[in-house]
User: Fold this.
Amino acid sequence: MKKYLFVILAMVTCAVHAQVSVEASIDNIEMLVGQQAHVTLKAVAKENSKVEFPSFQPSQYVTPGIEVLNCQPQEDKKTDNGFVEKSMVYTLTSFDDTLYYIPPMTVKVDGKPYQTKSLALKVLTIEVDTTHVEQFFPPKGVQENPFLWSEWSLIFWLSVLLLIVSVITYYLYVRLRDNKPIITHIRIVKKLLPHQKALKEIEQIKADKMVTSENPKEYYTKLTDTLRKYIEERYGFNAMEMTSSEIIEKLMATQDQKSLDELRHLFTTADLVKFAKYSTLINENDMNLVSAIDFINQTKLENVPTEETIKPQLSEEDQHSVKTRRLLKMFISALLVISVALLVYVVWSIIELIK
Assistant:
């Protein structure tokens, strides 16, 4: 029984080894001196088998006269029945013209050596016809330069200067483009005259029914504040910070006594209400309101322009930005003029030299 098992095992082992194959091929059996040829070694073995190809260092000889330049492993290719084809490409060269015999190479698969077939490589030289010597020409002499550096040096340096100026001009242009201009708009607005604003506020007091309000202090505060603002804008003194008597004294030089008496009575009543908790009647409130309207109508100025021109005030940073843009524009313009002049001169000089 053991004898049969040994025979079967031996047969299986032989079958497995019989399926391992190695081969060598060359892409060209002839080449000129110094050219290259490629030898490819292929080994077909089980996927998990260890395959060792011959290893050569650069400039090492496979055989005397044939030099190895490079060893390049190739990508594995799967075949049938779980086998893999592994390959290695060797780049060879030679500098002696003769027919070379490349001996078989040894490839190890799982430690067992397998030899490839031998190859041949013929190295050829270029034939030289020595019978027609007249067809060979000696080296040519040094050609004289048709241009002298002394003639072109000025043009060269001016061209360099032109390039530098162009780069600076472009850089400044980019700075100018990124530095956004400050656009200011002069606005013309319509303004209300002092008496128009005062009468408008009094109309609002009437609309809020503050005359009949149970809070006379609020009514007289708003009424007198309206008058103070009107007097301040109409006569140009700070009536908001003055007492009632000081306002009357200021107005005595410009107004008639009757209108000032009515205004004095209105301010006196307002002071009593605000500071002495004086209670007023509705008809008294109405009378003071009429007195305020009469005073405004008697003192108003109508022939005054109602439009005001507003010019925006630039900050220090904005003024600096405007100045910078102006300088950049001037500098860019000057550089453009210089660039054009240099370009014209360089082109003209080249044309003159070529002639």
